[in-house]
Design brief:
This protein is an alpha/beta fold and 329 residues long. The chain has 9 helices and 15 strands. The protein has a 9-stranded mixed beta sheet with strand order 14-13-12-11-7-10-9-8-15. It has a 6-stranded parallel beta sheet with strand order 3-2-1-4-5-6, with helices on both faces. Helix 2 links the parallel strand 2 and strand 3. Helix 3 runs parallel beside helix 4, helix 5 packs across helix 7 and helix 7 packs across helix 9. The longest helix has 20 residues. The radius of gyration is 19 Å and the shape is globular. The two termini are 33 Å apart. The structure holds NADPH dihydro-nicotinamide-adenine-dinucleotide phosphate. NADPH dihydro-nicotinamide-adenine-dinucleotide phosphate binds next to helix 1.
Amino acid sequence: MKWAFVGASNIASEWMVGAVRAVGDEVVAVVSGSAERAQAFARQHGIAQALTDLGALAGLELDAVYVSSTNDQHEAAVLQAAALGCHVLCEKPLALDLAAARRMVEACRAAGVVMGTNHHLRHNSAHRQMREVLRQQGLGPLVSARVSHSVFLRAQLQGWRIDNPGAGGGVVLDIAVHNADSLAFLLGEYPVEVMAMTQQRGMSRGVEDDAMSLWQFASGLCAFTHQGYNTPHASNRLEILGQQASLEARNVLNQAPGGELVWRRADGDLSLRLDHDNLYVRGLRELHRAIAGQPNDLASGEDGLRSLAVALALLESARTGRRVPVSYA
Ligand code: NDP
């Protein structure tokens, strides 16, 4: 497939150009708000076209568009891609509000193209193995889930994320959406109600850099999630706790593959072997399957809309101090 990249971003540079090439596709154009950044990105990655205008994508005979501009700019790029009949892989969070995310999903549906959300974590081996154990009822009736997902933002990423609410900054929109997708992938459900407290703890200005939250699911299960930007020495952890056993994944909530997974049971702890595939390459393979009409594990546009709905409810709860029902409408 021939791809255009909208956004001369870190994620595009560090992971997605390589991932697209690894599945046998090519990147033929990059679009940036700045001609210098577009040219520098194109030069660095050997991309033929450096553009500054979404309109210039017409006529390139593209098959797909990858969108990794700041969160406020995703919608315009996705609507343009759909108008050109291109499949779309859009970064998370899809947008800053649900109405925009809905317009994006609807535009792709109406155009008959596949829309994916780049929730890469569901493509790690730990997630897939945990889902398998859960499908086999390997924990007995479920009790709760815990997600510790506090990181330290590299200096390079300490830009719009920590001081620009208009661009979609803040740790809830950035990381809680991933936690919503991970739990939905594992449990097969999204929360119906959430509560959250947020704080600014030395990293951000004007947006939260740390958030604690409680989630209630329709099945009755409760989850706790912690997402943060300012903890340089924290490990991350994803646990599902059942009445008979539990699953604990450590250091799997990263961009790079790695970490470990333990199934704790009455007969002892069992370490499950993880494969270490590139998560973004796997995600693109799932996108290819979706385009071919095959069964797939792609996070769809709808999935991205739902993870955004959870994040928005968390922000509302933090603002109002109340429990907030999550609206997916
Ligand atoms: P960056 O900050 O690297 O890039 C975002 C935009 O900022 C770029 O598109 C670019 O705009 C602009 N920009 C980049 N460098 C500069 C600069 N030196 N001066 C001024 N503007 C600049 O963002 P990320 O790569 O961290 O994130 C991009 C998107 O990807 C977000 O939606 C984020 O949430 C998502 N993301 C997803 C991850 C995942 O694993 N799924 C991981 C990381 C991010 P322009 O295009 O106009 O040049």
